Fold this sequence. Notes:
globular; TIM Barrel; alpha/beta; five-stranded parallel sheet; single chain; three-stranded parallel sheet; binds manganese (II) ion; 12 strands
Amino acid sequence: MLSFSDWCQSNVPEQVDVEQVIQRLIQQRIETPSWGYGDSGTRFHVFTQQGAAKNVYQRLEDAAQVHKVTGIAPSAALHIPWDYVEDWPALHRHAQEVGIELGAINPNLFQDDAYKLGSLTNPDAAVRQKAVGHMKECVDIMRELDSDLLSLWLPDGTNYPGQDDFRSRKRRLEESLEEVMDYMDPHMTLLIEYKFFEPAFYHTDLADWGSAVLLAHKLGPRAKALVDLGHHPLAANIEQIVAFLIDEDKLGGFHFNNRKYADDDLTVGSINPYELFLIYNELAAGEADGDLDIAYMIDQSHNIKPKVEAMVQSVLNIQETYAKALLVDRKTLRESQRQGDVVACEELLLKAYRTDVTPLLHRVREAMGIDPDPLQAYRKSEYPKYVLTRGT
Ligand code: AFD
Ligand code: MN
Ligand code: MN
């Protein structure tokens, strides 16, 4: 068995400080979504699973398990009204008791008949006010839970040419969100998530990173874009979008998942691990220039995988990818780029991507008091059996 120092000798470039890499990996934080723990499916069917969380209390205890075995998933995002409770202080206490923090609050502007023709962009001012009111209710919940992220996915769009006016909808959205921003507290940030299509099929009001960042700039420094990996046209260069948003200080967060065809919400890194590495390459490069204040969140629907196990897999895929990106020899890369040595540049990235970082991750987990194999540790734990016994 190779010693860690021998492993470093062969795998860590001279220019890379492995102790700093270990510290960054220890400090890594990934937020899991409450909605990833309940039964889910597609528009064709929801596959129920014995033991899947049935309420927000169980969803939070599942999230706490993911953090317990990985050590880097300390918070869970909530979705309102799916996670709505009358007694927020009681939910906050429950979260603390099971060992999970409460993170981003996600409004729901897609599950109400009133929103058929749009929510914040609806031609009817009364509907817009209803949607603004819901977002203000979410801000009130943020105050109850000491949350500082309002994470908006806007489902608005149209299904047919001529159905509504693009520019009028753009202005309605700006006005609606200006009212929400005024209601938010100074420590709160609005994350603006864009999506290429769906549920609307002709146009989506926040369809791409350009529309999101334009709006974020208009709304001010407390509004930023959120990149969901499944929300781009096929072949979009997401790592370039990430680099541009970092450079504009408008990258507020991610919804990590993976896709083959559309917004498939599959396990992050399961379909295109190299794309995830290239995204993390931009993040690691950005961090080398100065700390980034980004919410790293997962947004997945584990339709056919056991919920907690799938979430552990997702967190570990992200952790492994970040570890590889931190091993890129950036000094030599910049030199090779200056010289136009294309093959050398590519080989520097590929060397990091091809590195088996298991020894590094074991060192990090040892430092954190975490089992070196979190997924197996979870599968062998009592928890998979426990969830089968809990009520509804
Ligand atoms: C759906 C949307 C979007 C949103 C998520 C949670 O496509 O990704 O963030 O639901 O509301 O996946
Ligand atoms: Mn999302
Ligand atoms: Mn999505």
